[in-house]
Design brief:
With 88 residues, the chain is mainly beta. It is built from 1 helix and 6 strands, in the order ββαββββ. A hairpin with a 5-residue loop joins strand 5 and strand 6.
Length: 88
């Protein structure tokens, strides 16, 4: 897919999604956030309950993480959904 990348892992006879990466602003999160939006847009959609580390902002819910990476202008340059389920 040109606008996003899906990584999977096998478990038994099935493959499960481990990560979804956004590649451009043609896709958005369910809450309407896409690449090149701002930190203010992210916080308006998801709130302030995130963990911040060197420009990375991580929201956790259930067994998943939603990560945003922002540049020095507070512009979103990366969005990633990732599962926290352990797999081999």
């Amino acid at each position: 897919y040109p606008s996003f990348e899906i990584d999977t892992y096998p478990e038994g006879e099935k493959d499960y999604i481990s990560c979804i990466y956004f590649r451009d602003d043609m896709v958005q999160t369910q809450e309407g956030v896409c690449l090149y939006m701002t930190r203010a847009d992210m916080e308006a959609a998801y709130g302030m309950d995130y963990k911040e580390d060197n420009g990375s902002f991580v929201y956790e819910k259930g067994n998943g993480k939603l990560s945003f990476i922002l540049n020095e202008n507070d512009e979103i340059v990366s969005i990633e959904y990732k599962t926290m389920v352990a797999y081999n």
